[in-house]
Amino acid sequence: MLFRSSAALCGALIALAVSVNVARSETRGGHANAVVDAASGEAVVGAASTYNPFKPGKEEGGPKTASGERYDPSDWAAAIKTTLRRKFGGVLFGARPKFALVEAVGKKVIVKINDVGPLRPGRIIDFNERTMRHFDPSLERGVIKDVKVSPLAGDNWTLGPVG
Where does the UniProt annotation place the signal sequence (predicted)? Predict the structure, then answer.
């Protein structure tokens, strides 16, 4: 009797887990479409690189970003080219970060734009380490070409990969 009850309970838990995973995947798919639909303004296409002001020998600014947040290599964040600051909602000191949909090498990710920079010629965005590892897991490329960056309206976005 105890065995039958345990087996029934186990079966019910497995069914619940499967239904939750199906619901999550359906939500992610819908989220991906909502993100593409919410992209406000024209996308910018160019090259991307990575930065970390804590690494020795780096030329980038200090540990504070343009929004006033501390640089966090484990966040989903990026610095946009200074001349694109207005297109991405300002990115001002003390203001809430802005958000963007970034597409490259067949992947999409939502990042917060919390910093700006002069960047190197030809580059439109600098990713923090986590974001760059999403597109280049080994960090061997250094620069990713043909990155599409679309500003997102609003500030209620879940950061990270998009389905």
Answer: 1-17
